[in-house]
Each structure stands twice: as structure tokens, then as C-alpha cells.
Amino acid sequence: MNIQVFNTLNAVKFHLRSDLHVIRKLWHMGTGLMGLYIYYKSGLDSRTMSYILFGVAIFGFIIDLSRLKNDTINKFVMMFMGPFMRESEKTSLSGFPFYSLGVALSLFLFPERIAILSILFLVFSDPISSYFGILYGKDKILPNKSLQGTVAGYLCCYLVTLVYGMIFAEPTIQLLVFAIFGGVIGALSELLSELVDDNLTIPVVSGAGLSFINLFIPLF
After folding, report:
1. Domain of residue 97, residue span
2. How many CB atoms lie within 10 A of CB 68?
3. pLDDT tens digits, 100-144
4. CB neighbour burial string for 191-203, b if at least 16 within 10 angstroms, e if fewer
5. CA–CA separation, 127 vs 132, rounded Å?
6. Which band of pLDDT confidence, cut at 50, 70 and 90, is reported for residue 1?
7. What's the Rg (C-alpha) of the chain?
């Protein structure tokens, strides 16, 4: 990024990763739920939707790379997306293209019901674990992860699996056990975001883990 772009953006202060940033979390959940609603209303199959989202992800990466090199494009993007972005995203890729890519990969790689569950993990677990981690995270597991946030993420994924599972199955011990493992898988996928963007790790790692569990506890 050239000096002119850096100086222009440096004058505007965005939220840090350690900030609560509630509007970003609401945006994260809202766009995810809206995307799932559009998917179901569209009548498209999961493979076709994955191709569309791959295209959205590519477009997002192009916009991000363009704005990082062009001050005019960057100011235009920030004018609309600034409230939802972090300080670090002024000079680096945003989470948007990774969000689209993660959802696209999940729909492409896994059976539809498993893919949707892994996407619901992304929609709810990511902002909820972050919220509780920032507010109450005193016991660090990793540099940006706390025991409290991880427990919140586990409980969120457990409850999401339980509620989602009851759409397709009776509330049995089998569903309860699957939900317990689902919570573990969701929490672990969120911890892996220390290495790769969580918008990518949560749906992909969760989808793989849930598919594996489904082999032994066939529910979906």
C-alpha cells in the first residue's frame, strides 16, 4: 500500500479485534441468516449455490486487493463498510471474501444438511464466542482465544445442533450425543482461526468433523 493511501486511512479510527464491536457481530449474523433465507427461497441446489458463492468470493478478493492499491476505491468501500470493519482491515484483506469462500466450500464439499449446520456454526458461534471472550475472557488458551469464549462457542454449537437436529429427527439420545460432539467440533474449528481466518475454518473444519461423526451416529 502506498504512503498516500496509508495516511488517508490512518486518520480514521476503526474498531480493534479486542473491541466488542457489536454492530459487526450483528452484521455477521444478519447477513448469514439472510443468505440462508435467500438460498432456501431460490430453490437452487447446494452445488449451484456453491458456484455462485465462489464467484462472490472471487469478486470480494478482487475488490479487496484493488482497494488496498487504490485510494479512491478504498475510500469508497470504507464509506459503506467502515462501521463493520476492523482497524487491521484498513491495510489487509477483510473477512467478507473469506466468509463467502468458507460457505461456498462447505456447500460444495459436504451433504446439504451437514453444510447448513456448519454454516449455522459460523453464523452464531463466531460472534457469540468472540462476545463472551472479550467480556469475560480472563483465562487465555491461545493469544486471541480464551477459555470463556471457547466454552460459549461450545454451548452455542451444541444448542444449534440440538435445535437444528430436531427438524430432521426425534429428540433422542442419539441426537443428544451428536449435539455434544457437534459442540466440540464447532469450538475446535473456532480455535483454529488463530492460523486461518475463522470465516474459512469454522464452516470447512466443522463440515468435515460433522461428516465424520455422522458416519458413526447417522443423523443427517
Report:
1. 3-216
2. 21
3. 999 999 999 999 999 999 999 999 999 999 999 999 988 999 888
4. bbbeeebbbbbbb
5. 9
6. very low
7. 18
Q: pLDDT digits over 24-69, tens only? A: 889 989 999 999 999 999 999 999 999 999 999 999 999 999 999 9
What is the rounded average pLDDT for all residues in the chain?
Answer: 89
Helices (H), 121-197: 126-136, 147-168, 173-191
What is the count of structural domains for the chain?
Answer: 1
What are the backbone dihedrals phi and psi of residue 140, each rounded to the nearest 5 degrees, phi first?
-75, 130
CB 156 within 8 A of CB 192: no
Is there a contact between 145 and 191 (Cβ–Cβ < 8 Å)?
A: yes
Contact 35, 140 (CB under 8 A): no
Report the alpha-carbon distance of residue 64 to residue 27 in Å, rounded. 18
How many angstroms from the chain centroid is the CA of residue 1?
Answer: 27
CB atoms within 10 A of CB 146: 20
C-alpha 219: how far from chain center: 24
Q: For residue 213, is pLDDT > 60?
A: yes
Can you tell me the distance from the alpha carbon of 214 to that of 212, in angstroms, rounded to the nearest whole number? 5
Give the three cell numbers for residue 75: 475510500
